[in-house]
Write a structure and sequence with these properties.
Layout lengths: L1 E4 L4 E4 L10 E3 L14 H9 L2 H7 L6 E7 L3 E7 L5 E8 L5 E6 L1 H4 L17 H12 L7 E2 L7 H7 L10 E2 L5 H10 L1 H9 L3 H23 L15 H21 L5 H14 L20 H14 L9 H26 L1 H13 L1 H8 L4 H13 L4 H12 L9 H6 L12 H20 L3 H13 L7 H5 L3 H17 L10 H17 L9 H14 L31
Antiparallel strand pairs: 1-2, 3-4, 4-5, 5-6, 6-7, 8-9
Helix pairs in contact: 4-13, 7-8, 8-22, 9-12, 9-13, 10-11, 10-12, 11-12, 12-13, 12-15, 13-23, 15-16, 15-23, 16-18, 21-22, 22-23
């Protein structure tokens, strides 16, 4: 059963097959029987009119009128429209069996991605036998293993143990080592609950169920950044780094193979290929895009530049085919982000921390979800990780933050935070110039083609304005409606905190503390979006992992300091006695 989300209610409908990919062809005469079809358009309309969903909806729209189409081989589509031309209902009917296979209303008429079609996102990754083992692999290395406690020599149990042969050195099992950090990891997986309802087309539950996990992670990131909520028990590895490397290598191979053999390229990845092709041919980036992806020019120019080498190597047929360039780009962004996390972890706490961060990316199901969709969202994660990696250099972090901003504009909210970096206070005057100049120069460089081709107005309309005016059922703001004041409140809080985090907390900062603050800003920004989707989780996931593991005095990283702002971030690991070459 599917639950179709209308603006103010949830309507239950039935789905038994996936709709044909053919384009609808209007049949004007109700008595016409198209070639290859058994029914006439009028017969299909009468069958559709008996569907309970249609009857209940038309009670609220008595003036709506029907239109009947053929849709591919052996499939009918009957739609009802308002007098203003808005499509209210879609019904699909098999021609031979005369059975209704699908019926949709509300947002799910326009948003086919909200219908739970298998293969739209993630493909076989959505099967529980794939998703759940990945969840286990993500958690497993960080879970504390039970250990036996040694008995006191003078205890009665010890005396009893001496007369019991092999039992004399055994003690009770100890389950110590659990902390709030393990709950944090579990909350990162909690988005799976929302995704399960999304895959079943139940927007009424999938959309609101994402927000408790966003809010929880937001609170935790702010708390950790301010030195609060740090459990006494550190997050430690229960296996050696070499074991993680072996498992991670297998995961990388499996993820790459799955992308090549069992995935598609969604419109987002397709847009990257089209934009790269335009750059290579010297065409304007914005405006008059192909009808197969007319709104693909909604991203910053860096997104399209990132696809240029893949388009140059793998080519493009000019249509939405298998798009090998899109697959290659997704794989490239994924692996480069993993490598960036290893280098970042190695710099912060040593090679074992780097391996742990890279492994978490490889095992986390939602990074795999992005890869299986061949989306561009890993590019945002990659550029933010590189900005963290360059945090000690004001010019370099300005460069990478500018690149992230002009890939997808949400990273602009991190500007004040990265202006300060790890300094004791916000740099002013000459001290701020290296960051500001590098950010401005990089921004001008990536926008040069747009500016010199006289395309800036189109860029502004197709990116910033379109995103501001966008409607979507994939947030509580769009699904429920009537919450514009509350949404503007969240937007205002986001701006205020983005500025405030440049000043507070005070004192010298560490990379892990900056990561926690950046994660909080990114998550709060996502909470304010009209269109939110599971692909966006990877924007903040690397930041959250750095904060969860790195800001603790964890034995995993061998940090002698008490928490954020303290300790040698390059100290070798103590708990895991394996060095990564």
């Amino acid at each position: 059963m599917f639950a179709g989300a209308a603006p103010a209610k949830v309507v239950t409908v039935t789905k038994t097959v996936t709709v044909s990919s053919g384009s609808p062809v209007l049949i004007a005469s109700p008595t016409e029987r198209p070639a290859g079809f058994d029914m006439t358009a009028g017969q299909a309309e009468r069958i559709a009119a008996r569907v309970p969903l249609v009857i209940s909806t038309l009670k609220h729209y008595p003036t709506a009128y029907p239109a009947t189409y053929t849709k591919g081989g052996g499939q009918w589509q009957v739609s009802w429209f308002t007098r203003k031309g808005k499509e209210l209902i879609q019904v699909y009917i098999e021609d031979v069996t005369r059975k209704v296979t699908e019926a949709w209303t509300g947002f799910q008429v326009a948003w086919t991605m909200a219908r739970g079609y298998s293969g739209s996102f993630g493909h076989n990754l959505n099967h529980p036998w794939v998703w759940l083992p990945l969840c286990v692999l993500f958690l497993a290395p960080f879970l504390p293993l039970p250990r036996r406690r040694a008995r006191h020599p003078a205890s009665p149990e010890s005396a009893w143990g001496k007369s019991s042969g092999s039992r004399r050195r055994r003690g009770r099992w100890s389950w110590s080592g659990w902390s709030l950090l393990h709950l944090d990891l579990l909350m990162l997986l909690g988005f799976s609950i929302s995704l399960a309802y999304f895959n079943n087309a139940n927007l009424g539950l999938s959309v609101p169920l994402a927000y408790p996990f966003l809010v929880y992670l937001l609170v935790r990131m702010v708390a950790l950044a301010f030195g609060r909520g740090r459990p006494r028990t550190p997050l430690t590895l229960n296996v050696s780094a070499y074991v993680l490397i072996v498992v991670m290598s297998a995961l990388i191979g499996f993820r790459t193979y799955s992308n090549i053999k069992d995935s598609g390229v969604i419109d987002v990845g397709y847009a990257g290929v089209i934009g790269a092709d335009r750059i290579l041919h010297g065409e304007k980036l914005y405006g008059t895009w192909p009808i197969s992806n007319p709104t693909g020019d909604t991203y910053g120019p860096v997104n399209y530049y990132a696809y240029v080498p893949f388009r140059a190597i793998f080519g493009w047929s000019g249509s939405w085919d298998s798009l090998p360039a899109g697959h290659a780009a997704a794989i490239g962004f994924d692996i480069l982000t993993l490598l960036g996390l290893f280098l970042l972890g190695r710099r912060v706490r040593g090679p074992t921390f780097g391996v742990a961060l890279a492994y978490s990316w490889a095992a986390y199901p939602f990074t795999f979800y992005v890869l299986q969709s061949s989306s561009n969202d890993s590019l945002v994660a990659l550029l933010v990780v590189l900005a963290l990696l360059a945090l000690s250099s004001r010019p370099m972090r300005g460069v990478f933050l500018a690149l992230a901003t002009f890939a997808k504009f949400t990273s602009a909210a991190l500007g004040p935070l990265f202006l300060r970096g790890t300094d004791e206070r916000v740099p002013l005057g000459r001290r701020a110039l290296p960051f500001v100049f590098a950010f401005a120069l990089t921004s001008f460089a990536v926008m040069a083609q747009v500016i010199f081709q006289g395309d800036f107005h189109r860029f502004w309309e197709d990116t910033i304005v379109r995103q501001i005016d966008r409607t979507s059922p994939f947030s509580i703001w769009g699904l429920w409606g009537g919450l514009s004041f509350e949404q503007h409140m969240v937007e205002g809080i986001t701006v205020a905190l983005a500025v405030a985090f440049a000043f507070f907390p005070r004192g010298q900062r560490t990379i892990t503390q900056v990561a926690a603050l950046a994660a909080a800003i990114t998550i709060l920004f996502q909470c304010s979006l009209t269109h939110w989707f599971y692909l966006y989780i990877v924007w903040f996931f690397p930041l959250v992992m750095v904060a969860l593991i790195g800001c603790e005095p964890a034995r995993l990283m061998g940090a002698p300091g008490p928490g954020p702002g303290a300790g040698d971030e390059s100290a070798p690991a103590r708990e895991v006695q394996v060095a990564v070459p």
